[in-house]
Amino acid sequence: MSSNIRRSMPLFPMGIVMQLTELSARQIRYYEEHGLISPARTEGNRRLFSFNDVDRLLEIKELIEQGVNLAGIKQIFAARQSTMPSNEPVAETVKEKVKKPDLTDEELRKLLRAELVEAGRFNRTSLRQGDMARFFH
Amino acid sequence: MSSNIRRSMPLFPMGIVMQLTELSARQIRYYEEHGLISPARTEGNRRLFSFNDVDRLLEIKELIEQGVNLAGIKQIFAARQSTMPSNEPVAETVKEKVKKPDLTDEELRKLLRAELVEAGRFNRTSLRQGDMARFFH
DNA sequence: TTTGTGATGTAAGAAAATATAACATATCAT
DNA sequence: ATGATATGTTATATTTTCTTACATCACAAA
């Protein structure tokens, strides 16, 4: 499903993610340092977080609040990765590699934009305004 | 509906919006200057755009490509505002004003976070990861 | 108790991203 | 030709984020 593209698209800067998660920059960077998340970077090396990244940070935060340490969280994530069949079969990943060998961030955004325009056109005439939201279903 | 909160939440910095819309910073600022959008600001005065803002910019871009000038676009938006009954009845706006008299950005983000946590909990155990996306339906 | 480790805070300095303002330019209708 | 509209460009200031280093605090192990 192409919603994965959307959910993994680098969109948010550090400041927003801090507010969204109520984590400190230090914490977020520390979690990255330990491989729990891998936000994208701008050309200028600023972190850009995706919806997935924010999701993950919220999970991390919850687990930490429940007393799990980073090592534990790492295991939990790893276990999930290996034991869960995953919505997106591995083949899909391969297929994507084949069909789109290394989408750049810019290409990704073009894709998103295209979908947005389309989604917007959808309920623009009949409703009052484009709804970027329905884009995430 | 509370999806309005989400759709109007200030999330994106200028750089991302430029890529998402393929508009120049100059253009985006110019459109704001002429009242076509009103992005929020950080404490430090940086613009923060919402999904709605991006939607609007994409609309503006399309209309401009179709030869409509800013004055025309302004009229179109104004007309939409007044003639369309709007999904969200006016009463709702009033109600929100009554129940939540002036939500700050921070409060808005707390709301979003809360919903995210909940949404995450939903398909976290049975699926592989939280799905911030389903949050936007 | 002392020591070590994990998780986070804080501060310094550099670099990137963005802000406003001013001036330039191209198109187009008058 | 003139003037307005829309956008590009440049300069300068400010904010935001980056990395690195050191401080701290809680807790487990020795």
Automatic annotation (TrEMBL), chains A, B:
<dbReference type="InterPro" id="IPR009061">
    <property type="entry name" value="DNA-bd_dom_put_sf"/>
</dbReference>
<protein>
    <submittedName>
        <fullName>MerR family glutamine synthetase transcriptional repressor</fullName>
    </submittedName>
</protein>
<dbReference type="InterPro" id="IPR000551">
    <property type="entry name" value="MerR-type_HTH_dom"/>
</dbReference>
<keyword id="KW-0805">Transcription regulation</keyword>
<feature type="domain" description="HTH merR-type">
    <location>
        <begin position="11"/>
        <end position="79"/>
    </location>
</feature>
<keyword id="KW-0238">DNA-binding</keyword>
<dbReference type="InterPro" id="IPR047057">
    <property type="entry name" value="MerR_fam"/>
</dbReference>
<dbReference type="GO" id="GO:0003677">
    <property type="term" value="F:DNA binding"/>
</dbReference>
<keyword id="KW-0804">Transcription</keyword>
<dbReference type="GO" id="GO:0003700">
    <property type="term" value="F:DNA-binding transcription factor activity"/>
</dbReference>
<keyword id="KW-0678">Repressor</keyword>
<dbReference type="Pfam" id="PF13411">
    <property type="entry name" value="MerR_1"/>
</dbReference>
